[in-house]
Amino acid sequence: MLRDWGILKYRYGQMKRTEIACQFHTLGIHQGENTSTTMISSAYYEKYSLPQLQEQSEYIHSQDQIFVLHMCGLLKNLLHLIKQVGIEGIHSLVTVHRVWMGDNGSYGPSNDGRG
After folding, report:
1. pTM for this model (two decimals)
2. Alpha-carbon gap, residue 31 to 44, rounded angstroms
């Protein structure tokens, strides 16, 4: 219950910031959303992040603006969900070729096959 309250409070704050940004009547909104499958599962993203971003996207588009997200993470396993947000683009840069595998201090191969 407390977690749900925190999420609702965060979503409310995000929407208020989005409404304020849209008042400037710019071409669009560019928002940082540093999502990565190394930190969030697709199920968690679908349950918590997707509804918030869809709400923001609908509002931004209702103000005749475009919505671009910055997401610098490993996104391949989230692309089918990100597509549902309704954004015009993703600003992303991934420079890590090896992915941290956990507390044992080892690195594993990245998704791009370069290891």
Report:
1. 0.71
2. 20
Closest to 67 measured CA to CA, from 18, 12, 106: 18
**The Cα angle at residue 56 between residues 71 and 48, in degrees rounded to 5:** 65
Compute the half-sphere exposure of residue 111: CA atoms within 13 Å on the CB side of its CA.
10
Could you say which DSSP state residue 87 is in? -
Residue ranges with strand state E in the chain: 28-32, 66-70, 89-91, 98-100, 107-109
Q: What letter represents residue 20's amino acid?
A: I
**Which pLDDT tens digit goes with each residue over 27-83?**
888 887 767 778 888 998 999 889 999 999 999 999 999 999 888 778 888 889 989
Sorted by where each begins, the domain ranges of the chain are 2-109
C-alpha torsion sign, points 40, 42, 46, 52: positive
State both tokens at 4.
Answer: 């749900």
**3 state DSSP class of 49:** helix
